[in-house]
Design goal:
By secondary structure, the chain is mainly alpha-helical. It is 77% helix and 0% strand. The chain contains 18 helices and no strands. The chain is globular.
């Protein structure tokens, strides 16, 4: 049984490395690639870490393990958020125009209304903190996993509760993506029914692409050194502020770290720091670590409320899709705008560009930038929505 901090971190890194090696090899096959689309490495990592916790691979009461978990929330979480946020190009997002950004926010509204209706219907047979679990899922459904981790930290969602959240995200995303792919073949009928057109999208795409950095994926040692210097300095500043602040009744220390990290990251994204390469890759490492630590509290034998949460997600998806079609008709959204905006919510930067490319390879930038917009606003919207659900509970 693992009891030390070093052993705990070593186990997580070894497990993550094995998962990525296996997934990389499996993903190179045709059938394996389809499986990886539905069950990516991040799901396998969470599942294996939960199984390790269930079967007692590490001692959750050991001082070393507790210290490692606390260090994750106090240091790695804000470091991850600063790195993720500084990669978001706010100036380019503005170039998307009010129509695309508005479509994204309307999709976010459809998601939150869907969860609200589902929660009101199902709260009678769900645990008391179901509102917090749903808020965490909303963080993922408006932003990405990084937002889900941040919101879960704010509301104290971990262990079995977080397992429910991951289950809801995986189940919901699978159904969602299936519907989106089916609609792809009905683009002309959709646009005719909505009385919509795609005029002007090419001009916006060209303007965005003209500002692209040709060396965006080329990293050198200097990038990593400056990146870590800035982000570790920001994390130290955040922890110093939080540790010296008076206790607040409406938000905990983790929540304050999430707020300050997001703000500092967005501010840095408006400076030359945004041009530092490698931030996303490094931040992903800390994201997977955060996921592992959250899963380390899990005991899958206690997941007795899974059917109730699956029913909730099903109701939410039905309401969401109905509202999505209604708003698309009201605002005359073409299928590209409608699909990319809602996929940028639920799929984020990993899926929205793929859907955009399926419509037109020249429009990939729309999916990327809308996904980044979700990274910025997802945490804030989900936290606010969580307090609303808490009021309803």
């Amino acid at each position: 049984m693992i009891k030390s901090s070093l052993g705990f971190f070593a186990f997580m890194f070894i497990m993550m490395a094995i998962v990525f090696v296996v997934c990389d090899r499996v993903g190179k096959t045709k059938k394996g690639a389809k499986v990886m689309d539905i069950l990516p490495p991040i799901v396998w990592i969470f599942l294996l870490m939960s199984l390790a916790a269930t079967f007692g691979i590490f001692d959750l009461n050991a001082e070393g393990v507790i210290a490692a978990q606390n260090f994750q929330y106090s240091t790695f979480l804000p470091l991850m958020l600063v790195m993720f946020m500084l990669t978001c190009d706010v100036k380019k997002i503005i170039h998307l125009g009010p129509r695309m950004i508005g479509a994204f926010l309307i999709a976010s509204l459809c998601i939150m209304i869907g969860f609200t209706v589902a929660f009101i219907i199902c709260k009678g047979f769900l645990p008391e903190n179901a509102w917090a679990i749903i808020a965490s899922v909303t963080g993922s459904f408006i932003g990405e996993t990084v937002n889900m981790v941040a919101v879960a930290g704010v509301f104290g969602v971990e262990g079995v509760d977080y397992a429910y959240a991951v289950m809801m995200v995986t189940y919901g995303f699978t159904i969602f993506l299936t519907v989106i792919m089916i609609l792809l073949k009905r683009k002309e009928k959709w646009n005719k029914f909505m009385n919509a057109s795609t005029d002007g999208l090419d001009e916006i795409a060209k303007r965005i692409e003209s500002e692209a950095d040709p060396n965006a994926n080329t990293c050198v040692m200097l990038d990593y050194m400056v990146l870590f210097a800035i982000c570790l300095g920001a994390t130290w500043l955040i922890n110093t502020i939080v540790d010296n602040m008076p206790t607040l009744s409406f938000i905990n220390g983790t929540g304050l770290r999430v707020v300050f990290s997001s703000i500092i990251g967005v501010i840095l994204s408006l400076t030359r720091v945004r041009k530092l390469r490698g931030a996303t890759q490094v931040a992903n490492v800390f994201l997977y670590l955060s996921l592992c630590v959250t899963a380390s509290y899990s005991d899958l034998k206690q997941c007795t409320q899974a059917p109730g949460f699956l029913v909730l997600v099903t109701i939410m998806l039905v309401v969401m899709f109905l509202l999505w079609v209604l708003f698309s008709k009201l605002f005359k959204y073409d299928l590209f705008t409608a699909e990319v905006s809602i996929t940028a919510n639920i799929g984020g930067t990993s899926s929205a560009p793929l859907i955009a490319a399926a419509h037109n390879p020249n429009w990939i930038s729309f999916g990327i930038l809308l996904g980044f917009f979700g990274d910025i606003v997802g945490t804030w919207l989900a936290i606010g929505f969580g307090h609303f659900l808490h009021f309803l509970s």
